[in-house]
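Protocol step 4 of 5: obtain the predicted structure for the target chain.
Materials: sequence only (see below). No template structures provided, no constraints applied. The aim of this step is simply to have a reference model before the mutagenesis design in step 5. Sequence pasted as it appears in the construct record:
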Amino acid sequence: MFKSTDGGATWRAANIGLPAMGISALAINPGTRTTLYAGTDGRGVFDIEQVPPACVGDCNNDHAVTIPELLTMVNVVIDDAPLSLCLGGDADRDYHLTVDEILTAVHNALSDCDD
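Step 4 output (structure tokens):
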């Protein structure tokens, strides 16, 4: 199984702990949206937890939120930019940025992502 965190521009293996056999079904837990279930051919079902971003709003993963990153998030919310420009802003991993996530990012910018 492979995972993309940049809107499909690049992919990396995300099958740690899964047996070396086919996956026949995938489902997202509608309650958390951060849990993916992978059904295998004869080996049962495995759950894969997505790790939320360490610092909401950190678009480039440098452990800081900058004004340009906040502006990018605003542009994503108003549909002037694709989410792939700031996946670190999508705290709940629902593939949509919200005003609440922008406010969290502003807080992180002011607190140096410490909280």
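Step 4 remarks: Helices lie at 67-77, 99-111. The beta strands are 2-3, 12-13, 23-28, 35-40, 45-49.
Proceed to step 5.
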